[in-house]
Design a protein that fits this description.
Spermidine Synthase, Chain: A, domain 2, alpha/beta, binds S-adenosylmethionine, seven-stranded mixed beta sheet, 31% strand, 2 domains, Rossmann fold
């Protein structure tokens, strides 16, 4: 058993003959997943990348030991971070995704025929390649000619763009390491400049339960930069606390079309979810007032 433990990828442990991934990036909370198989495991220049097959969540992308997305619930997050802004800006043509290496958000955006270009700026090519090959439930093995994969730092990329995009989706990992700057005021200011006059941005703004401070700071930053701000939520079982938040900043008033024009193969977002997701629980409404 000692020998088996020594040859395991980092973050994995055996217990009574079973393999477990334990997320221990938080001080007071550990979350463990029973693992069937290690599909891919390698250190990139930026982080440790794994695709694991788990019992309850199917295949999952794990970066530096933290679960990012899974076959079972990845669609909830990816549909929410893409279809909500795409419904709010139904004539969008150019979309920029920052992060999003699992390709799920790009896959959803590519379902709209009026979108002409999707620039996907991901710092770590290994995440994209491993998800395309080993996590098709999330990535759909995306190969749409409108999607341009650009492997660079999203912060530097947006700094050099002005008045280019209709929608910018910031699909980042947690605010540590290379993703930390994706939560800063200066970064959102560059995002605003990279958007067209009627453009809008959305970012994942973390758990309202466990990271209320990050959500409030993100909301305050975006509010300083954009005249119209809205927060919406979804429940994503693999993220700590379940309840997850997204924050939108827009230069023009936010209003959903009378009738949504959603792709017909969504699994989570529908007309009712679109209308309901902006209804915030009382504690969030008060904190963000
Ligand atoms: N849905 C996931 C979640 O909320 O945990 C995250 C999606 S995706 C896997 C996040 C991606 O952001 C990672 O692949 C990571 O490599 C990428 N990333 C982190 N910092 C970045 C940066 N500065 N520029 C571009 N991509 C970045």
């Amino acid at each position: 058993m000692k020998q088996l433990q020594d040859s395991l990828p980092p973050y994995l442990k055996t217990e009574n003959g079973d393999l477990w991934l334990t997320e221990d990036d938080r001080e007071n909370l550990k979350i463990s997943y029973r693992i069937k198989d290690v599909i891919f495991s390698q250190q990139s220049a930026f982080q440790h990348v794994m695709i694991l097959d788990s019992y309850d969540f199917g295949r999952m992308l794990v970066l530096d030991g933290v679960v990012q997305t899974t076959s079972i619930d990845g669609h909830i997050y990816n549909e929410m971070i893409s279809h909500i802004p795409l419904q709010l800006h139904p004539s969008a043509k150019k979309v920029l995704i920052i992060g999003g290496g699992d390709c799920g958000a790009a896959k959803e955006a590519a379902k709209y025929s009026h979108i002409e270009q999707i620039d996907m700026v991901e710092i770590d090519e290994m995440v994209v390649q491993s998800c395309k090959e080993h996590l098709p439930a999330v990535s759909g093995n995306l190969s749409d000619p409108r999607v341009r994969f650009i492997y660079t730092d999203g912060v530097a990329f947006v700094k050099e763009r002005e008045n280019v995009y209709d929608i910018i989706i910031i699909d980042s990992s947690d605010p540590v390491g290379p993703a930390e700057a994706l939560f800063s005021y200066d970064f959102y200011a560059s995002v605003r400049r990279a958007l067209k006059d009627d453009g809008l941005m959305v970012c994942q703004s973390q758990s309202p339960i466990f990271h209320l401070d990050i959500l409030k700071q993100t909301h305050a930053n975006i509010r300083q930069l954009f005249p119209h701000v809205a927060v919406y939520t979804a429940t994503v079982p693999t993220y700590p606390g379940g309840l997850w938040s997204f924050t939108i900043g827009s230069s023009i008033p936010l209003s959903l079309p009378e009738t949504a024009s959603l792709p017909n193969d969504t699994k989570y977002v529908n007309e009712a979810v679109l209308k309901q997701c902006f209804q915030l629980p009382e504690f969030m409404r008060k904190e963000l007032e």
